[in-house]
Amino acid sequence: MSRVIEVPSTLDEGAFEVLIEAAAGVIDDPDSRLLLDARQVGWVSPFGLLGLLAVGQAARRRSGLAPLLEPPDDPEVRSYIDRMHFWPAAAEVFEVEAAPPKRHGETDTLLEITPIRSHEDVHHVVEHVRERAQRILINRLHYTRPSVIHFSVMLSEVCQNILEHADSIGWVCAQRYHWKRRLGREVVVLAVMDVGVGFEGSLGAEHARRFGESWSAGAALEAAFLNGESRFRDPGRGQGLQAIRRQVIKWNGAVRIRSGDARIARVPEWDDTPDLQTGLPRFPGAQVLIVLPERVEAGA
Amino acid sequence: MTTVPAIARTELFSYLVTRHTGRSVRTSIEDQLDTFDRAVLAVLDLRHVPLIDFSCADEVVAKLVGPASRPPRTRRFFLFRGIDEHHLEPIQSALGRQGLAAAAETIGGDPLLLGEIERDLADAWRAVWALGLAGHAVVADRIGVTDRVAITLLEGLDTRRLVIRDGERYVSFGRVLSDSGASDPGR
């Protein structure tokens, strides 16, 4: 039996919450086949696009049936998701035609949707993003030249999080925007998602006993994000997220990691997201959003 | 020098990203070092590495240096050369997290201690590097400490495999390389 979930018209981080809450009953029902109706979608963010894949993948893993997806009607949205190479990734999750990605000229896309399954995929992403990262980070965000390397390192670590902790396929993509209303500046938005074991499951074997009954997705996120703890006893592990956090702070950016029923954030002064949210609709894996704002000179 | 270590040179190329890649690189270096039946100075050149991430730095630098500084392994010494500005943070972080230190040279050839090390040990290390080969009295004089303190510091550097002890004298890695005629083909 197909169960239809209407995708919110503005498909961003907030809409992802709405979507997973609406899809929860379907994902938990192994006899239902999910149909995501995205025809009304009029705007979509990188996080929203990966969110569609994540919700579809979670349903597919539960039921074993490829979910269905009604694509957006809006031609601009269709063009955008085409430019982001959504359909090749979607064809591995949904029962849709795998339209080959089209070549586009210079765009604001920093990184099209790229599946991460192996360390080779991480190498591919890091080695191919450099030219565009240089163009966007230096010319548009006015970051320094070394920031291209710092961004690549951050990208590598955040993608490896999928390989090291998710035990599952994941996706990454990045886009430049002008956040006129929210910030009045240009930003780069980087989204990374998987539907694997999540932080609570990944760190549980090593840390849950110490926390006792207070062990939760929120506790796991705090342990990893704030204290650099990992599921391994190896003291060399757990550096990646710490490094990402430090780098994002240097750029006065935001990072939010959602896992299980919690979300932890590094909140800059221009944002009002809570540091830690718990009791969210439970969803597998980890969903990461990084926002890097344009650099402004002090006093400007 | 009475005890001349063997020298094993490795030039690293390309992007050092992902733990998997780092593990492969480290394993191949360890395999190479296992072929030596005496003390060996491993020289790893990173001048052609455009990018190293934190996971790879842990595998290629911290995990190599870590076991080497603990007995009873065959004496292995490491020198990381061609260190550029962008290599610093991942390597410093990987070493510092485990309280390790490593001898290095910048891409311009300047000596550099990476990781976590006490200031007086670092002073003694720089003195040995500048002198090339020295006993404790010369080092004590150079850094302004007593002979006794200098002996403690030099033994500390020897324990951490940051200098090579040759009887009563301590030898810098730079001196070992210049004596071998293999100082730096890249410069």
Textual characterization of the structure:
The complex is a heterodimer of chains A (300) and B (187). Chain A is an alpha/beta fold and 300 residues long. Chain A has helices at residues 13-27, 46-63, 75-83, 86-90, 119-140, 147-166, 198-211, 217-225, 239-250, and strands spanning 2-6, 10-11, 33-37, 43-44, 68-70, 109-116, 170-179, 185-194, 254-260, 262-266, 276-277, 283-293. In chain A, β9 and β10 (262-266) form a beta hairpin. The radius of gyration of chain A is 19 Å and the shape is globular. The model of chain A has no long low-confidence stretch (mean pLDDT 91). Chain B has 187 residues and is of the alpha/beta class. Chain B has a domain at 6-117 and 174-180: STAS domain (Transcription Regulator spoIIAA). Helices cover 45% and strands 24% of the residues of chain B. Chain B contains seven helices and eight strands, in the order βαβαβαββαβααββα. In chain B, the strands form two sheets. Chain B has a five-stranded mixed sheet with strand order 1-2-3-4-5, sandwiched between helices. In chain B, β2 (40-48), α2 (54-68) and β3 form a beta-alpha-beta unit. The longest helix of chain B is centred in the N-terminal third of the chain and has 16 residues, at 19-34. Chain B is globular, with a radius of gyration of 16 Å. Classes of the chains: A alpha/beta (300), B alpha/beta (187).
Task: Please give the share of residues in helix of chain B.
Answer: 40-55%
Query: What would you call the shape of chain A?
Result: globular
Strand content of chain B: 15-25%
* Top-tier CATH class of the largest domain in chain A: Alpha Beta
The CATH homologous superfamily of the domain at 6-117 and 174-180 in chain B is termed STAS domain
Spans where pLDDT lies below 50 across 5 or more residues of chain B: none
- Report the radius of gyration of chain B as a whole number of Å: 16 Å
User: What CATH architecture label of the largest domain in chain A applies?
Assistant: 2-Layer Sandwich
What distance lies between the first and last C-alpha atoms of chain B, to the nearest angstrom?
25 Å
CATH-derived topology of the domain at 6-117 and 174-180 in chain B:
Transcription Regulator spoIIAA
Order of helices and strands of chain A: EEHEEHEHHEHHEEHHHEEEE
The CATH topology of the largest domain in chain A: Heat Shock Protein 90
Low-confidence stretches of chain A: none
What is the distance, rounded to the nearest whole angstrom, between the alpha carbons of the first and last residues of chain A? Answer: 58 Å
Q: What kind of oligomer do you see? A: heterodimer
The total of beta strands of chain A comes to 12
Query: How many DSSP H or I helices of chain A?
Result: 9
